[in-house]
Structure formats: C-alpha cells, structure tokens
Design goal:
447 residues; alpha/beta; 5-stranded parallel beta sheet; 4-stranded antiparallel beta sheet; 12 helices; globular
Amino acid sequence: MYKKVFHTILSLFILASSAVGQTVKKTNTGLMGHRYLTFNTVIRVNQIEVSRTRNVGEDERALHTPAKVEAFRRAVAEGFPGGKMTWAFSWLALNDTTANYREIRKLVVSYLKKYGDEITFIPGAYFANAYNTTEQVNKDIHNALNLITKMVGNGYRPKSIVAGFLSSENQQYLAEKEHIHVCQGNIWSQFSIDNQDGDGSVSYPFYPSKEHFCKPAQNSADFIDCVNLDGWSVDFLAARRAGFADGFNSRLSVGPIETIGKYGPEIGLKQMMHATAIHFDQGFELNKFAWVTNCWELSLPYDAEYLRMWLSQIKKRWPDTKMITQGEFGLIWRKHYKNNHFNYVFIENGSGIGGSDADKEIRWFMNKDFRLALLRTVGDPESEKVIDFTNYTLPAKEPAEMTRKWSLLGEINQKQTRAQDKPIPLDSLSKDARALIFHHYPNLDNK
C-alpha cells in the first residue's frame, strides 16, 4: 500500500514538474532537460588564509607547482573533452611573487583563453566570515577582483566567486556593488568539521535572504540577487551526521578526501559515482534538471589520474552532461528562476560505503518555505521518521561576531546535536509545521 501511494506521489510530482518545465520552455534558458557538472579548484599559499596577513594551517607553496597545474588541467581535458572549470585564487596566491606562482597565474590565464575556464577569487580560503568583518571581506573581494582583471586583461571579470561560506551581507555587496550574481556561498550540511559550521540551507541553487545566507529569500524586500551555490555534492545519508559521528566522515561526497583518500581508488571512485548518480539518475527525473558540483583543491595529494577517471566515467554514463564553469551554470539557473519558486526533491538509497547506509532510504524536499528530510529503513515504511524540518518562513539572524557557528537549525535538525533533534514521525511535528508541509505536499498527509 505504501509503495503504491509513494509511487503515485512521485508520478504526480514528475508530471507537475514536467508541466512547469513545458510552461517555462517558451522562454527557455537551457536549465531544464539538462545535466550540469561544475568543477572548481582552489590555488592558495597557506592552508587557510584567514586574512591578508594571518594564516592558520600549513604553508602549501611546495604543493603548488606549474607541473601540477598542467597535469591537473590535462586530466580534465582528457576525462571530459570540451569541459570547462573554475580556478579560484586566494589573496596570497594572487600576490605571491615567487617564480612558481607567477608561472601558475600565466598558465591559468592561458586555460581561460584555450578552454573558456573561469578565473576568480576565494576570500579567506573558505571561512572568511569566521575570521573577518563583513567590511573587510568586501574590501578583499573588491581588491582581488581588480587584481584578476589586471592579471587576465581585456577588462575580464569572473561571473562568480568561490567562498565556501559567505554571509548574506557580503553576497548582497557582491551583487549590488560588484555586479556578480553567482556565489559558491554555502557548504551544504557542514557541521562540526573543518573551521566553520553552516548547516541549514538548500542543496541546489537559491537566492539568499538578507537575514541569513542559508535561508532562501521570502519576498522582494528580502531578496538578494545572487545565486547561492553549494560547494560540493555530498552523499545525503552520510551528511545527516555531525562531523565524524559514528566513526564516519559526514562529508562523504564526490570529492577525493573522503573517498579515494579513505577507501582507495576502486571503492573511492565507486562512491564518487554513487553520489553523482543521486542527481544524474533519479534526481534528474524528479527535478527535470540535475547538477553535480565538486571542488578538488590543487594541493591535495591525489594523482590527477583519479580525476580523469571520475570525469571519463561521467562522460561515458551520462554523455549529455554539460561541464561548464560555475558562473555560467549559476547564470543559467538565474535566467530560468527569477525568484525562489523552485521545488527540489531528492531520493537516495545508500551505497553501503562509509556513512552511506545500505539499509536506509532518505527523501529530501526543499523549497522556499522549508526543507524536510524523511529517513526510513529500506523495506520498512513504518520506520520512516522526520530527521530535519527547517522552516524558512520564520525569522533568522546571522551571527554579529566572528565565529564558526553559522548554521540555521530548525525545529528538528538532521545532525541530532540538540535534545529536540531526535527523529520523530511526520504526524508528531507541530501543527503549524504539518500545515506548511501539507500545503506543498498534500499527499504526504496520508493518515
């Protein structure tokens, strides 16, 4: 009975999505009906350049060489012929005067001309707001963009920036003052790992609220015209954990650290393809377009051959995939969606690798008003419970101070770090929460 109801819901959703796609197709931007892949790399001098003059972590000069850049770009060209990528330079990498960095900058400029790649800036090496005021971040962005224009020539300006996390105030500045309308501004589900937390957002593109970068804008007064993108596509089942809970890495994804680095190339690449397929298979059917994004830092100690292998497997399995720059993808989304009238649905059955539990199925529903995650044991529909409900219609506020804590935690959060986060049946949510959910998905109210 459950399966029949579920598949009916699924069919209705697909038909509704199809109708929306057909309506918009008259002014089609090219978003619907396509699979998109965006691939970024970060070139820095220090592991975490928290400001122009202060570093945290290891000096990485020896890990950034022209030879490594050439091998990296060759792997992309061979793995995905015709594909474009985005190169993000840190402040120090833009200003370092040593021979290696001068040559690296020349090489990357040549790739922009040869392949159509994007060259941009990453403020603070991912965690700018944890260590800098919003005013300083704006200054860094402004000055760095001018350096990039000078470096490339011909008045070049990137279509996006890479930031890891970036506050709503900084994204508003980026759009209104720098006229850049795409920002990799959130790392979906990150919590208790690395140097900043930021759980609570939507995993696909959205326009952020002026209240909080994890919250979709609710109306025109709240709207920031900057497409907020996730940093890299993660395994939804692994990502429901906090940090390294249960002995697993919550960042298990399409990236090499948690996959190839942990399990070796064979199993690691298998998991990377599993995380890719979440979007390019069923995700594509549900949402009528699909997007996978990856950030593979140049300093990582993994052979570029593994990058070539992942890309070539994608090209072979989904030959229609478009590999474009981050800025190009964000602007395609922006042209299609003039506001936050998106409705994303994702379904995953675990791979059995790491925290991607083979016996679990997770369903995510994400729209302007809320995000909802339902988790169940495969074959046991009665076990399904809510593990996340984040109500975006409620007021939100970003930290006023420099801190790692930038998450937007809702009524119940997937990380289960608070007493209130214990998974509960859908009908145990608050009355207001259920009313909001059933307004969007009336068929979930099948009691």
